[in-house]
Amino acid sequence: MSIYAVVGLTLGVAVLLGAVYLAARAGARAAKGDGWLCDRCKYNDARYCSRPDRPNATECPDYKELGA
User: With contact defined as beta carbons under 8 Å apart, do 12 and 4 qualify?
Assistant: First the structure.
C-alpha cells in the first residue's frame, strides 16, 4: 500500500469521525430541547446576522438571548 493511500485513508477516517461527533453533539442539543441558537437569538434576522450557519447554529460567538 502506498503512502498516499495510507494518508488518504487516514484523512477519510478523521473526516468521518469528525462528522459523527458533530452530528451526535447536535442531536444531543436537540434532545435536550435546546434546538438551534438562532431560534432564541435577538439577531435572528438576515438584516442583523450574516453568519453562514444561520438559522441552524448550535454555537455562535455573537449569540444574545431574546429579551436580553
Answer: no
Question: What residue type is 60 in one-letter code?
Answer: C
* Amino acid residing at 1: M
Domain tally, the chain: 2
C-beta neighbour count of 38 within 10 angstroms: 19
Same domain as 43, residue 26 = no
29 and 46 in a common domain: no
Q: Tally the C-alpha atoms within 13 A of residue 13's C-alpha that lie toward its C-beta.
A: 6
Q: What is the DSSP letter of 39?
A: G
Rounded-to-integer distance, Cα 29 and Cα 23, Å: 10
* 14-35 pLDDT tens trace: 998 988 787 767 655 554 556 7
> Considering the entire predicted model, what is its pTM?
0.46
Domain around 23: 3-34
